[in-house]
Amino acid sequence: MNVKQSVFGxxxxxKIVNQFIISNDKMSFSVIEYGAxxxxxxxxxxxxxxxxxxxGFDTLEDYVTRNDxxxxxxxxxxxxxxxxxxxxxxxxxxxxxxNDNDNCLHGGKNGYDKMFWxxxxxxxxxxxxxxxxxxxxxxxxxxxxxLSIEIEYILTENNEIVMNYNAKTDKDTPVNLTNxxxxxxxxNGNGSxxxxxxxxxxxxxxxxxKFLIPDGNIVSVTNNAFDFTSAKEIGKEIDSISxxxxxxxxxxxxxxxxxxxxxYEPKSGRLMEMYxxxxxxxxxxxxxxxxxxxxxxxxxxxxxxxxxxxxxFPDAPNKSAFPSCIITSQKPYSAKTIxxxxxxx
Length: 345
Ligand code: GAL
Description:
By secondary structure, this protein is mainly beta. Helices cover 2% and strands 43% of the residues. The chain has one helix spanning 60-66, and strands spanning 2-10, 16-23, 28-32, 38-44, 50-52, 74-75, 81-82, 86-89, 92-95, 104-105, 118-124, 127-136, 147-155, 160-169, 173-174, 178-179, 197-200, 204-208, 214-220, 232-233, 247-251, 261-264, 270-276, 280-284, 292-293, 299-300, 307-311, 326-327, 333-343. The chain is globular, with a radius of gyration of 19 Å. The relative contact order is 0.17. The site of beta-D-galactopyranose (GAL) has 9 residues, from strand 24. Beta-D-galactopyranose binds at residues 69-70, 105, 212, 247, 282, 284, 288, 309.
């Protein structure tokens, strides 16, 4: 296990952004202090050929100026959408940024994806990694409470990237943190993910309105395009879904011991499993990728990457029937997600 630290770039305000490359003898991934962004995930295919299976850019400048798709980033304070960019908590109305129609997406215009996260290398029994810290002040983005956040990215000997999220507040506040990595197991820039075979351990998903806000209904996946309980190609029924593909929150068991998602790319043989303790996962099929120039001048078109964003339910601050996303000074936030890489013959 090894971690290499180097300078990735300098922010417009002069702050230096470090990159950390964490490797074992089979795979590696890299992260930077801007947005706590995962900038690469390099894993072998069945012949041992290594490719970077995450979408992104080559330079800090690109991440600062044109990462409006949130490649690899931590999103928050509340990942996903909050309807009307407002919510009521303890009889007070809180107003957020309307950065997605009338709604707030991924924390608003000053999301955690655009912020500096102090990184620190550490080793634990579980593996080697980097801890990122950030203090989100009371009122930042419109949210109540000073929030101290610590996010660990760990690589294990079993080719797992483990993400541990912890946050403490001094006032009641909604919190929903996730990582927004786009994967393409054939290698980033190598075409569509429609041929990837997906299993999702989810028998229900949240239906949404045309602005992708949950309408409050949680419905069965049985006999429809949302049923991935038996593995099927992502592309099989994707064209039947309005809005250009999948962009929905699926209900999970929240049991970290159980595989919540498994994705297989038949040509390369690469397989990724996902485990989480979160109640939901936003399965997003890269519907808004439209010819973006990414790493090594590669083009990312619609469906050239997918995200499995583990999280609380979207718009939970306004939906009392959804699992509570409110943390308090007595009840801190914690979440865990694991992405595990292997190959299948
Ligand atoms: C996803 C979201 C999509 C889109 C994307 C960024 O998390 O579900 O609707 O906004 O981020 O382009």
